[in-house]
Amino acid sequence: MPKLLFSKIRIYEFKDLIRNKKQPITQDHLTHGPKLADLLENRDYLAAFRSFLQSEFSVENIDFWLACREYKRMTSSGRLSNKAADIYKEFLHPMAQKEVNIDHHTREKIKRSLVKPEVTCFDEAEMHIYRLMEKDSCPRFLKSEAYQNLRNTARKPM
Description:
The protein is mainly alpha-helical and 158 residues long.
């Protein structure tokens, strides 16, 4: 019987490969409402989305994502190091008050990078949380009364 050789691939990497395959470009926003990226660019919708997540006990997701965005805008390496440690302590440490749901491998990789953090050290976790909000929280928010009320009263509807 011939031997088959397989490269080792972690299950989460396989899932990411499947999830990240190219999706056909559609005009879903015309029929299904705006995308998460649209909501996050608008101050009013972002505030409403954050309140919605708070009501669902998952506000740590948007807070982590916003902290990562702020982290990427920093230029001082000393401040970068301090901010990275703060983000880890607030969102990634196993005893964090606002712990986000990421896999152990990613958490440990970030923990090791804190010795000399790069601007990209949170990218993997940030993308995971973004996709979680995009696939889970955002569709529910778009069906919520809070979103409907904001959309009906907004000066610049999405």
